[in-house]
TrEMBL record:
This is M23ase beta-sheet core domain-containing protein. It comes from the Bacteria. Keywords: Signal. Transmembrane segments: none annotated. The keyword Thylakoid does not apply. GO terms for molecular function: metalloendopeptidase activity. Residues 93-187 form the M23ase beta-sheet core domain. CDD domains: M23_peptidase.
């Protein structure tokens, strides 16, 4: 666990900062299934990579009755990114936490803060609509990022939000960069230079960038509570 993540966990335990649920699903006690990108090495699934509806159907099949499909931080996803700009650039390591959710599902602010970026990345397999929130931990600033959102409900730039306040809804493939519907969530130790953090990085850059954009998986891990 990085310095920021460890400090957040300690502050949450001490009641110094409130961590709210990101989505209307029990992320701590509910059943979950973890996504495995290697399934796309199977020709049975590979064709779905260029069809968002088929891709969505496969993920829902994997989710089954668990209620939640989770895409892990730090996962190698080369098999899922074949033919994409990410593969061409050698950036196939996932740098966030994915939660598969239906379009229109409400998204809530993890911590109290302010919207410092509310925009759209208009690229195929980009973030689509996204938000970046600024927070404080004592004198220290940190940020949370929410990607692949719907257009209409996205919170406006400059808005102050409470922990647990609705800030957006999940977008469909026409609004979210062409992906199956899901939330991409990241922690950031600094304001990302582009206004949004990199979602995929190379193996060579992972350690360096993981220090700037640490693993947020503690938010769904009941072990530390």
């Amino acid at each position: 666990m990085t310095d920021l993540a460890a400090a957040l966990v300690q502050s949450i335990k001490m009641g110094e900062i409130k961590l709210a649920a990101l989505v209307p699903v029990d992320l701590l006690r509910g059943k979950r299934t973890y996504f495995q990108a290697e399934i796309f090495n199977d020709p049975k699934y590979k064709a779905a990579l260029t069809n968002p509806d088929q891709f969505q159907a496969i993920l829902q099949e994997l989710q089954g009755e668990s209620g939640l499909l989770v895409g892990k931080y730090g996962e190698e996803r080369q098999a899922m990114l074949v033919g994409s700009r990410y593969e061409a650039e050698g950036r196939t390591i996932h740098l966030g936490l994915d939660l598969l959710l239906a379009p229109g599902t409400a998204i809530f602010a993890a911590f109290a803060g302010q919207v410092v970026a509310s925009a759209q990345e208009d690229k195929l397999l980009g973030y689509g609509n996204y938000l970046l929130l600024e927070h404080r931990l004592g004198e220290r600033k940190f940020y949370t990022f929410y990607g692949h959102l719907a257009t209409a409900e996205r919170a406006k730039l400059g808005r102050a939000v409470l922990a647990g306040e609705a800030i957006a809804t999940i977008g469909d493939s026409k609004q979210n960069g062409g992906w199956p519907s899901h939330l991409h969530f990241q922690l950031c130790t600094e304001f990302p230079p582009a206004g949004h953090p990199p979602g995929y990085v190379s193996k060579q850059d992972f350690a360096k960038l993981a220090a700037l954009y640490p693993d947020p998986s503690f938010i769904i891990d009941p072990a530390w509570r």
